[in-house]
Design a protein that fits this description.
15 helices, two-stranded antiparallel ribbon, Amidase signature (AS) enzymes, 15 strands, 11-stranded mixed β-sheet, globular, alpha/beta, 15% strand
Length: 488
């Protein structure tokens, strides 16, 4: 029963709270117990940087009381009242750590709340724990000298992905109901796919960011959850123009999931298994084939989409961008610190800076424009593009991948090429969801991206809701290997 409560989705929790069938404090205690049982120790999940037990319990008791009073008086309540949210450590909470996984930043604390944190608290959410990421959120695995290795609850020898790996793992392990994430090249969608959760990359600016790097047009903060409806609920709270981010836009509190879904047959789907020439493993390709087969059986319109992209083109485009913005910023933060640092951080900075020397800022903008133009042309006759989230089945939990990745008979120069997410940060006006569509040979889930037309959130969430029902995929603990170490 405790496990069932810990995994109950936010929409169902809210209904139970309103009718007095369950209390926020009961859910919180069930999830705190799972954190205690499964997060730390030898081969624990390692998804949590800190647990805010005292403040969370106080918030939960207050929410219990507010629901009781509302039942008596019919009071309207905030959208996330009593719902637990695990926040990625980079989403600063005033007075608490803001290290971004770097030993060099270990003593740094946030001077103010991140805009999404302010919105969560205003909506009544309980922030009970904070989650891990790789250093500076610059890797697709989640491990660092400061926090150790974060493991995938589905197979603890494998990674939950990165950079929001702690958030994905925490959701999959029943540590939280909702979680925050961020995405500059796939950091929300990659871990969502590897953990059978739902991750959303909103159009640029739809969810407000913090600091000068929020002006980077590849960036975006976002929600993660175990269902499409929960992801939409959290997105509605996080989204909208905010005074602290001049690039933020749109209404606040507006759900991207309509109350009544459009007919599935009215949505024009396109499918691209390789997005050009990405090498995709057999289990990933078969999972996408199953989705297309189900759509055809349901009478949906599906067509193949050809894109002229190559992994070389995609890599060079995003590394040129990072060489102009992210790598110099990372260098500035690290400075002359001699604190221990992950090898992937130094390699990323060096490779990005070299790309920045090969290509000027003008070159980088031209490369971005080319990919946006090619995507616009390739998707002009469809509403939704379906493609894999990750080209690979899994990554090792403690893997460095400094020499790139080998997929089939191809060796990819950079580990980011094992993921099919960065094209949609380059083309960052498009809403993109990753949803679970199967499980690979190593027991690690497989995800699929649902890509919309520019700024069209509603069609993306509508398609995702249809596919969630059509596929019937569940990420509940009863489908997991009970958090045991896998044999592979």
């Amino acid at each position: 029963m405790e496990q069932d409560i810990a995994y109950l989705d936010a929409v169902a929790q809210r209904e139970a709270f309103v009718h007095g069938e369950l209390a926020p404090s009961e859910v919180l205690e069930a999830q705190l117990q799972r954190i205690e049982d499964y997060d730390q120790g030898h081969e624990g999940i390692g998804a949590i940087t800190e647990v805010l037990q005292e403040s969370a319990r106080k918030q939960a008791r207050s929410a219990d009381d507010r629901y009781a009073r509302a039942r008596a008086h019919g009071t309207e309540l905030p959208a996330l009242l009593g719902i637990t949210v695990a926040t990625k450590e980079k989403h600063g909470l005033a007075g608490l750590s803001l290290s971004q996984g770097l030993m060099a930043q270990k003593g740094v604390v946030a001077q103010a709340n991140h805009p999404v944190v302010d919105r969560l608290l205003a909506a009544g959410a309980i922030i009970h724990t904070r989650t891990t990421s790789p250093e500076f959120s610059c890797a697709t695995v989640t491990h660092s000298p400061i926090w150790g290795v974060t493991r995938n609850p589905w197979n603890r020898q494998k990674s939950p992905g990165g950079s929001s790996g702690g958030s994905g793992a925490a959701l999959a392990a029943g540590f939280t109901t909702l979680a925050t994430a961020s995405d500059i090249a796939g950091s929300t969608r990659i871990p969502a796919a590897f953990t059978a959760t739902v991750g959303y990359k909103a159009p640029y600016g739809r969810i407000p960011g913090a600091g000068y790097l929020s002006a980077d047009w590849y960036r975006g903060d976002g929600p993660m959850a175990r269902t499409v409806a929960d992801t939409a609920l959290l997105a509605s709270v996080m989204s909208g123009a905010h005074r602290e981010d001049a690039n933020s836009w749109g209404d606040h509190g507006q759900s991207p999931l309509p109350r009544e879904l459009p007919e599935l047959r009215g949505i024009r789907f396109g499918v691209s298994t390789r997005l050009g020439d990405f090498p995709v493993t057999g289990p990933v390709a078969r999972a996408l084939e199953t989705v297309v087969s189900r759509l055809h059986a349901a009478g949906a319109r599906v067509q193949e989409v050809e894109l002229p992209w190559s992994t070389d083109q995609v890599r060079e485009t995003f590394m040129a961008h990072f060489g102009q913005i992210l790598a110099p910023a990372m260098q500035q933060v690290i400075g002359d610190s001699t604190a221990e640092r992950a090898a992937y951080t130094d390699q990323f900075i060096q490779e990005a800076l070299r790309a920045g020397q090969r290509h000027s800022l003008i070159d980088s903008l031209q490369m971005d424009e080319r990919m946006n133009r090619e995507l616009n042309r390739g998707t002009q006759d469809i509403d939704i593009l379906l493609c894999p989230t990750n080209a690979v089945d899994w990554l090792e939990a403690d893997g460095e991948y400094l020499q790139g990745l080998t997929v089939g008979d191809r060796t990819l120069e950079h580990y980011w090429e094992g993921h099919m997410t960065s094209p949609f940060n380059i083309c960052n006006q498009r809403a993109v969801l990753s949803i679970p569509v199967g499980v690979g040979d190593a027991g690690v889930p497989i995800g699929m991206q649902i890509v919309g037309q520019p700024r069209d959130e509603t069609t993306v969430f509508s398609a995702a809701a249809h596919l969630e029902t059509l596929l019937g995929f569940s990420a509940r603990a009863t489908d997991m290997p009970q958090l045991r170490s896998a044999s592979r």
